[in-house]
Write a structure and sequence with these properties.
The complex is a heterodimer of chains A (581) and B (252).
Chain A: H1 2-22, H2 27-50, H3 66-89, H4 101-107, H5 114-141, H6 147-177, H7 182-207, H8 219-230, H9 233-238, H10 240-246, H11 254-276, H12 283-301, H13 305-308, H14 328-337, H15 339-342, H16 345-368, H17 371-393, H18 398-401, H19 405-409, H20 415-445, H21 452-484, H22 499-538, H23 543-572
Chain B: E1 2-11, E2 14-24, E3 29-33, H1 40-47, E4 55-60, E5 63-64, H2 69-73, E6 76-79, H3 91-102, H4 107-117, H5 133-145, E7 151-155, H6 163-178, E8 182-186, H7 190-196, E9 199-204, E10 207-212, H8 214-221, H9 230-237
Parallel strand pairs in B: 3-8, 3-9, 6-7, 7-8
Antiparallel strand pairs in B: 1-2, 1-4, 4-5, 9-10
Helix pairs in contact in B: 3-5, 8-9
The chains are: A mainly alpha (581), B alpha/beta (252).
Amino acid sequence: MIAALCYLQYHSTRNRLVTRFRRLKQPKYLFGAVAGALYFYFYFFRYLFRGYGNGAIPAAGPLASPQSALLYESLAALVLFVIVLLAWIIPHERAALTFSEAEVAFLFPAPVTRRTLINFKLVRSQLRIFFSTLLLALFSHRLGGNVWIHALGWWLVLSTLNLHFLGSSFARTLLLDHGVSNRLRRVLALVVVAVASVAVWIWAKQTLPALTDSDTADFKSILNYAQTVLSAGPALYLLYPFRLVVRPFFAPDASAFLIALVPALLLFLLHYLWVIFSDVAFEEASVEASQKLATRIAAVRAGNWQAARKNQKAGRAWFKLAPAGPAQTALLWKNLIGIRQVFSARLWIVIVVVCVVFFAAFGHIARTQNVAVVAAIIIAIALAYSLLLGPQLLRLDFRRDLPMADILKTFPMRGWQIALGEILAPVTVLAGFQWLLLLVGFGLILFLPGKQEALMLAIGISAAVLLPVLDFLMLLIPNAAVLLFPSWIQTGKDSPRGIEATGQRLIFAMGQLLALLLALVPGALAFSVVYFPLKMLAGPVAPVPFASLAATLVLAAEAGFGVMLLGKLFERFDVTEEPAS
Amino acid sequence: MVQVEGLTKLYGEFTAVNELSFSIQPGEVVGLVGPNGAGKTTTLRCLAGIIPPTRGTVLVGGHDIVRDALAAKKQFAFLTDEPRLFDYLTVWQHLNFVARIYQLADYEKTGAELLAELELAGKRDALPGELSRGMKQKLAIACGLLHSPKVIYFDEPLTGLDPLGIRRMKDSILKRARAGAAIILSSHLLHLVEEICTRLLILQNGRKIADGTLAEVTQKFSAQSGDASLEEIFFRATSEPALPPVLPVESK
């Protein structure tokens, strides 16, 4: 029976790959694939072929040193512990193996045992794990160490986690069947965590010297302290199984890897036995899950990306929409209501990562400089990032509404009105965020010493005027791109995948940067024309806001022209074109 | 109310709609039928200004859909088979949004009446994701009818509706027609077309092959008498061999 399932998997994968190769006949996919392949080669693969030397990655990267490897092993074990813990706390559904509707229709009524189905799922998940392993190994290899050890280490971690997720979902179902509610299970898990945390805390308080300022002086000191706590006492025992799983990854050489591999494989085997011998009825929940999946896929294929989303909550209107007034305000109003969708888990992760990087990068400055200076630098960088990344993340415009283009086209509105209405929401949100940052910056100026106050104030006012127009210009480009190349840009929530999609994104990002630079030239000229003559009369600071105003006016004219063009593009946009793929 | 003259839509070499001409008067319910790929949806999309015609003119309420698009678009509603809603707007927010688009000062009263008529009054604050398929269809209809359109385009209006929903949809279409709206209805459900349409427009390969009342079309394509069913007429008109009738076992 498993042979038939392997046949299914083999031919499904093969046909999918053939389809993707065939579509390379289309230039948009071919160029994307070439760009994507070049990116992966230059960023990852060339290091595999060139060895360690001549500017390539040194063998002794941060992961290769034994001391840091031990630290990272502790941290990795802790991360794994948190992931596993969350798997026991967050999910609430009964165990469900997600199959496609066709698989449900063919396999569930067929004489296939439950165990065979689980094995099939496990074999299939190996394909996904293989690609994840490849990418992660290529990335982690850049931090030093042996790529093959990293690859096998990643495979072991991901495969064991995969089995654990499945096993915990089976256990959850069994607990539910035995009357242990989700709430009770969560409380029990949290109690275990609380007891463990208290034990670690008491041990650390009794055993380790009291925490001093030098222990928290910088990121490295904090990590060293964490290593001390994690590698002794109760934490050592708590994290021990997790250490066993991640240890092969951090092995410095082949012999150490083989030694670490034995207990890790044993854990993997135990997980497998746990999953395979769990007698849990997953069929009903699986049918439901596959139907939901099929509904989402059908909605996406029908171009109705909105219907493909789930778990929506009603958003509040930002303002009362009167029935009379410019029609484009209705689109602004609508898109602002939908902002909740934009702040997805992915965006929050990006925000958290950016914040962590900021504080890690600028933490050392805080010890030597005035805090206000540090904060001002962080705000300036945040503003720059908001300008560059904000328009990519806030997709409250055509990028979200394009699947509804046929409906938008029936509205009695001119193209430019629809274009303006679509772009206003992300501009409003971005500008609001940036003004907030500037206000904080103004507050900090008060703490800055001497003559810089005037200059900072001038720059702040200029930024407040310029930023919304710059945001507008930045947003015009991806919106024009989505109308010109709808299949290149992600519309809705699901994004195109594959090496060609990566290449398409790269080409688009470079095009956007080039377009922005060209768009800024007239503004920079206007700034210069006003600034330099005034500088001779009033010094270097006072002309800044006036020159910025001139630049803003020129850029605003460009933005207005851009909206008219975008409107024309939308009017000409053919809704029957190929959707994102 | 709707005048179509020489409407042609080309996709590269492919002709989706070919020299189509017809007109619809207020109160008429015109059934647009034809096999798959006949050009029904393309025709409706051209009529709604969603895609521009390659050639020909479309006048809605006397306004050209290309040259005077705004005035033309204020005249009609386009209701698709799959209700197209914004999943983050509630039922009432949809109406509020449409009211601003169409500048409807008294939308609250009309909106409340429509929701009551369509049995959505208790769902004002619900998101589309919380509505059944039929309710979503009703919401799309409420949005379409809020500005009291003089022309309504229906593309497969009964898709996904339960028997009660079908009955109500038919009543709703007839009610709007009696109120003077011109209605074009594209459907594969020939019994629906037969039941509620006053006129029939049969398309094949983008061309009009029949246009007239049911009796006129029947007469044109009926071999002997005029009592053939629309299904039979449809097969004859589109040159598809009619399936043999299903007979009871004894009579075979």
